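Many introductory courses stop at the sequence. We go one step further.
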Amino acid sequence: MTADSSRPSRDPHGPAGSVHDPVRSVHDPVDDADLDPGTPVPVRPGPLGMAGNVVRGALIGMAELVPGVSGGTVALVTGVYPRLLDSGAHVVDGLRSAALGPERRARTRAAFRHVDWWLLLPLALGMLVMVFTMAGVLKGFVEGSPEIARGLFLGMVAASIAVPLGMARATPGGRNWVLGLIFVLSAAFAFVLSGLPSGSISDPSYLLVFVAAAVAICALVLPGVSGSYLLLAMGLYAPTLGAVDDRNFAYLGVFALGALGGISLFVKVLDRLLEDFRKPTLVAMAGLMLGSLRALWPWQTEEAEVLAPGANWPTVLAAVAAGIVVVLIVLAVERVFADKTATTDPDPRTSALEDRG
């Protein structure tokens, strides 16, 4: 899973990178420099890179199906988070330029020209394949073996917290007490949010589906907040997975429209926060991920009340350990393939991890 292609940043500290690059600043997609035809743009990766992006998309799609696990967390771990967010911001900017403002055609073309389609399209393919093939399987696993499932995902999310914390540690600036306060408040917010009681609405209105999708989709780009858990809290988790399993395209169409609206509003905000307030934003992400572990505590009631460990604690503990090992393996594989790409890729525009810290 290589970090295959990325448009270089205008960051004077060095080239663009994945989440493992400590000094990368997310590029502002409204930059007038994008209008320059000579500005470097994402290039097509090799077959291995394309396949790696499909696999990443499948992993992100799987995460979005599981309550308590954020697709943004998986994007962080697999090294595509900054490029995913940056490309999403360019898409939003292109759509906005097509409807408003001067030089519509030129600005729209420039914005879409800088979208990393070689990343977005394979990711989308992998996500769709995973969602339509694994929705029923994961639903059965989560509902049939809830304690083991939550233990597995708890281990995965807990291990993933090291990624944004490592990025924040390598980013200069920031006062420790302020960052500590941000971390604690973010963790507390996620802890309270993940303790909300859940239910299920048997026949939700399309208006509710639209609004719920707009809210839940934000978790796709926000590590630590699970879109599936938000759907669960709003009573739409089971109906949505059922719609996927039954190919209810009317429901899915409304859901897709709501998701498009929500992501269009949120991605620009997060893109700006990562550019202007990178370190505190990363610390907040880590706090959200820590607080979200509340939703993944293996022993709890349907009303999200925490219980003491049961007699099956050795099995659940093994599942937690397995989850940690899975994340460590993914990080190791990502690093190996990233280093291989940086060494063998003759095009400097695609050597995204050349100066990783």
